[in-house]
Each structure stands twice: as structure tokens, then as C-alpha cells.
């Protein structure tokens, strides 16, 4: 998976019956043309044309680098 990163987006959602806050995660396969992203970076992604079977997003910018890198 050269030039591909997996972006995990987490949001809080209220369970409809039990009214408990549940964390919901979704994974997006994104294209990173310059291979600049590392694990733990915060990035901004944008939708684009299908680049492969799973890849439909691209990295727009690295918002924040991971600490210690």
C-alpha cells in the first residue's frame, strides 16, 4: 500500500435505546502522494474519484504532526 494511509475518524453518538454515549469509528483509505504522513498525524482529507478498490479520498494537508516525531 504505497502512497496510502488509513485515516480513522471517531465521533460520539448517543445510543437510541440505552441513551449511552458510544464512540463510533470509521476508517478511510486515503491517497498520500508525497508519503509524508506518519502514524498519529492529524490530517484533512477530501473526497476524490476512485483511485483503487477502496481508495476514494486524498490527503489535503497535515494539520498536526504526531508528538515525538
Descriptive account of the structure:
The chain is mostly beta strands. The protein has one domain: Nucleic acid-binding proteins (OB fold (Dihydrolipoamide Acetyltransferase, E2P)), CATH 2.40.50.140. Helix content is 0%, strand content 52%. The chain is built from no helices and four strands. It has strands at residues 4-14, 21-31, 42-47, 57-64. A four-stranded mixed beta sheet has the order 1-2-4-3, with no helix packed on it. It is globular. The chain starts with a strand and ends in a 5-residue tail after the last strand. The mean pLDDT is 95.
Radius of gyration: 15 Å
Fraction of residues in β-strands:
over 45%
Poorly predicted runs of 5 or more residues: none
Strand order in the largest sheet:
1-2-4-3
Topology summary:
Elements: E1 4-14, E2 21-31, E3 42-47, E4 57-64
Parallel strand pairs: 2-4
Antiparallel strand pairs: 1-2, 3-4
Main attributes of the structure:
single chain, 69 residues, mainly beta, OB fold (Dihydrolipoamide Acetyltransferase, E2P), four-stranded mixed β-sheet, 4 strands, 0% helix
